Amino acid sequence: MPLIEWTPEFSVDVESLDTDHKVLISLLNQLSEAITAGEPRSTVHRVLDALLDYTIYHFGREESLMRACSYPDYESHVRTHATLRAQVADIRDRYVRNPESIHSREVLAFLKTWLTTHIVGRDHLYVPFMAKQRDVVDEADRNFGMTSEAKATAAIAG
Length: 158
Fold this sequence. Notes:
GO molecular function, one term: oxygen carrier activity
Radius of gyration: 16 Å
Keywords: Iron, Metal-binding, Oxygen transport, Transport
Family: Belongs to the hemerythrin family.
CATH architecture: Up-down Bundle
Strand content: under 5%
Domain Hemerythrin-like: 14-129
Protein name: Hemerythrin family protein
């Protein structure tokens, strides 16, 4: 049984952000399954790395779109992202150093609460601002995708 299931209440009415949120939910579900099934440490570590990487990517996109529509609570939202990013990184780092130091139920409960309350609470606050400026948000989203693709290509090329 998944830790979190996508429901319409999670939607922020921006397709790319909804997709990102679905990916984050999927990664939390993979982490829950890996821990519950007693998967090797390397598997749990890989999922934690993917969760951290995707969190960073998603927050970058979300911040870009909030900036584009001049979201008035942008600075506060970015600070929340920084805190959440640091918390996910800390969980991953503690697991790498000492897997037994991470109490799986507590970590999974924290991550589930973190993601669901952030989406339904904080993220839903920007929905009306993005809806009013759909064209600007769509353009910023296209630009973010091109920038991210260019960065990935450059990283692969070395």
